[in-house]
Amino acid sequence: MHGMCTYNLNSLRSILQKQRKLPLNYGRYRVRFYNATIDNIRETASASDLPQAMSDVAKREVQHHSNLADEWWNVNGPLQALHSLNSIRVPFIRDGLVARGSIDAKAVSTTHVLENQQILEVGCGGGILTEHLARLDAKVTGIDLSDALINVAREHLKKQANARLLENITYKIEPIEIHVKDKCNFYDAVVISEVLEHIDDKVAFLTACVHSVKPGGSVFITTLNQTIPMWLGGVLVGEYVINAAPKGTHRWEQLISPLNVQRILDTMGCQTILVNGSIYEFWRNSWRWINSTSMCYALQAIKTGSF
Predict the structure, then answer these.
(1) From CA 142, how far away is CA 201, in angstroms rounded?
(2) DSSP H or E stretch at residue 125
(3) Phi/psi at 120 (5° precision)
(4) Residue 57: helix, strand or coil by DSSP?
(5) Dihedrals phi, psi of 142, to nearest 5 degrees
(6) Cα-based angle 216, 220, 223 (whole degrees, multiple of 5)
């Protein structure tokens, strides 16, 4: 199994650097196809399991989000935009999986629509998205590097007193690079929601994420675009004026465009089939799809073979 998951990151980066720009047409629901239970939760990863040289950037990001643990499930608190995002990202993931044809037609209009779907959420935080996907009967594994946030997720899950959720969710304090060693080509989908903009080495991170997905499975990403409008309106105004997100949450150098995400995924045998632009309307705490990816976007790619 480990042989199938061999990483060659330098080669991938080289390919990525040599690729020419691709003519893409992104917009709302605009599609383009390309030819090319609580007790069994692992409490923590051992020290030897963690990356040997966790970067200062990664440490900073983990600490920044861990500091918000007490407010994570406050729907009117500093993370209210993240809670509100579920209104579009949950249907995006649900509909993307339905479109793949692996969902029982009888379940499509029910709360069991994602039954038997194995989903990995990387960077799950306190479980805001995890619980919503599990309510659709998906089997969701949520992993995160923050023990504070995983503890928040577990405590919130226990308070739900919902046997169905308890059965459907597994939380682990574990990096994706370690998790994939035992879960190569395993999941029907990997979800990377509001995480990629906090990762410094995106090639290594996405490589591990793609390895976790079975051939024919989906990669779902939601993140911020690296544009001037996003930086000025979404980050500077959003964080320092209207407090739509905690100050210091985002950094320009860590943002990435959908084109560059697709380029990385292309080198890993993943076809990007859908990119939706989105925007957050802070005055009514609401998200909606728009015909532009200049602010935020949601992307779905399909793993076409073993990688």
Answers:
(1) 21
(2) none
(3) -110, 125
(4) helix
(5) -110, 125
(6) 155
CA distances (Å), origin 16, targets 12, 105, 108: 6, 39, 38
Which amino acid makes up residue 202? K
Q: What is the DSSP string of 234-302?
A: IIIIHHHTS-SS-TT---GGG---HHHHHHHHHTTTEEEEEEEEEEEEGGGTEEEEES--SSEEEEEEE
- In a 3-state reduction of DSSP, which class is residue 144? strand
Q: Does the structure show a pLDDT above 60 at 133? A: yes
Specify the pLDDT at position 268: 96
Local confidence band at 294 (pLDDT 50, 70, 90 cut-offs)? very high
Annotated binding site for S-adenosyl-L-methionine: 89, 123, 144, 193
Q: What is the mean pLDDT of the chain?
A: 84
Nearest 5°: phi and psi at 51? -50, 140
- What contacts 296, CB < 8 A, 6 or more positions away? 222, 223, 224, 225, 230, 234, 277, 278, 279, 280
- 21-56 tens-digit pLDDT: 433 333 333 333 323 233 333 344 433 344 445 677
Which residue positions form the known binding site for Mg(2+)?
194, 197-198
Residues in the chain: 307
pLDDT (tens digit per residue) in 226-260? 999 888 887 788 767 867 777 777 787 889 999 99
Structure confidence at residue 54 (pLDDT): 63
Exposure of 53 by Cβ count < 10 A (0-12 exposed, 13-18 middle, 19+ buried)? exposed
Burial grade of 1 (CB within 10 A; 0-12, 13-18, 19 or more): exposed
Q: Are 267 and 12 in contact (CB under 8 A)?
A: yes
Q: Which residues carry a binding-site annotation?
A: 89, 123, 144, 193-194, 197-198
Q: Which of 273, 274, 300, 277 is CA-nearest to residue 287?
A: 277
